[in-house]
């Protein structure tokens, strides 16, 4: 192939957000839009990460992925990349990409040093919906801010990019290596099975035999909803083929370009079918719900965990996994190096860390902040309130891993109950037992999606201004709800990375109350239109006799306070959030 140089000019708005660049497909389809971003990324990397390197390119298979993959292959070839690895049909979950970078060896024994992940995660897909792209590094984790800042700077000055435009499109539906000859020598495209490397890694972490025993017991019933995302490609292999679940346990497990027209976000609002099956909705599907249910987002890095008629808050889920990991999961048998959560995630994990005497870290929202801690051997298990849970087996959150972690805990607790007539310890039993031991963090998140960006900014500025006088804040608080505790402090969260000393500012506005309650306000960094305001509300209850309340009811005074303090309706014109989790 030949390399030609295309002249281009900068395009506005290519700043990577919390997790890469996410825009409407029609934005990505503009001339040079994808190309500029890809070249800006190549130019942000050191030469040896490009010339002669091996890169992974794949994603959740959403609409436009098949075109994007061919463009990136041609640009990689022109930039002197030696090999591009593509999961069959462009499918690789985000955690599988991370695993492939860390674990896989190519046909020629090479290792990958990075990846372009093609996903907009939980955002809808299709011609009128979202596409996305992000770059991951050789540790398998998202590029740190130092790199994403450089990428953004490059997008503002880009003048040209090289492309091998005479390279034929590669058949990405067939496993195998296609070789080309270019000015720098050989260039290979290797198409491989999307699940093999990931399945192998999961088998090295969990005791599949004990999970299989649980899943094949007639007493244990299970349901998994991939929401038409890429998780389906792994669910068949792992839950059905490896662990013996029934085929009928899988819902929406054939990956689709448009996620069946749905919103591939595993929460009580969007995972409707699963929620109904688990006996958690008004339109109950009838019949006895399964013992255990779970869902994933489009790129399978998120998870929702459900018991029979029971919802597990993600903040509780990571705390429960941390509290039970050592006995239940072979990977952790020699202990946990430490645990970490994102700032808005509830303090349930803090209580476990304290009681088990574990190192603990609080980082800004977004998985990239956990990577440094893990690389430095300081953290084993981490999680976010946004349905993200994971460990240092890779450098992304991992939806299927979280389900296997829960299955392991269930299998461990039920070792003596699987055979015979004994009743199984349920998901709900495990959570209630956890609350009785550690106390409960009542928790909810209100999302106001697609609000006017200017108004959202004004609301945030209003909240920052309020913070300058705590006595003033408390006067307002008492005026709204006299029984709520006093605000002890308020700030904008700032993080200093303990490994490399880098500082991240403006990571969310916090109001911290004397009784441990918290209100947190943030603007989303993953949306593609307007602004999304996230309001996180948390209250700690230590008294075991008071941990069984309905969450929305327990939190209603704090919710009321948060809405009035922030003047939510006044700024946004919204009397209710779009989504409550
Ligand atoms: C959201 C979540 C954050 C998560 C991020 C990426 O970001 O809040 O916790 O890490 O999505 O997840 P934001 O900036 O919109 O609040 V995913 O599954 O979209 O890669
Ligand atoms: Co995701």
TrEMBL record:
Cofactor entry: Mg(2+)
Protein name: phosphoglucomutase (alpha-D-glucose-1,6-bisphosphate-dependent)
Quaternary state and interactors: Monomer.
Origin species: Arabidopsis lyrata subsp. lyrata
Keywords, alphabetical: Carbohydrate metabolism, Glucose metabolism, Isomerase, Magnesium, Metal-binding, Phosphoprotein
Matching CDD domains: PGM1
Entry GO terms, CC: cytosol
Function: Catalyzes the reversible isomerization of alpha-D-glucose 1-phosphate to alpha-D-glucose 6-phosphate. The mechanism proceeds via the intermediate compound alpha-D-glucose 1,6-bisphosphate. This enzyme participates in both the breakdown and synthesis of glucose.
Domain Alpha-D-phosphohexomutase alpha/beta/alpha: from-to ranges: 14-161, 196-306, 315-415
Swiss-Prot/TrEMBL catalytic activity: alpha-D-glucose 1,6-bisphosphate + L-seryl-[protein] = O-phospho-L-seryl-[protein] + alpha-D-glucose 6-phosphate; alpha-D-glucose 1-phosphate = alpha-D-glucose 6-phosphate; O-phospho-L-seryl-[protein] + alpha-D-glucose 1-phosphate = alpha-D-glucose 1,6-bisphosphate + L-seryl-[protein]
Lineage: Eukaryota, Viridiplantae, Streptophyta, Embryophyta, Tracheophyta
Annotated GO biological process: glucose metabolic process; response to cadmium ion
An annotated Gene Ontology molecular function: magnesium ion binding
UniProt family annotation: Belongs to the phosphohexose mutase family.
Documented EC number(s): 5.4.2.2
Stretches of the chain forming a coiled coil according to its record: none
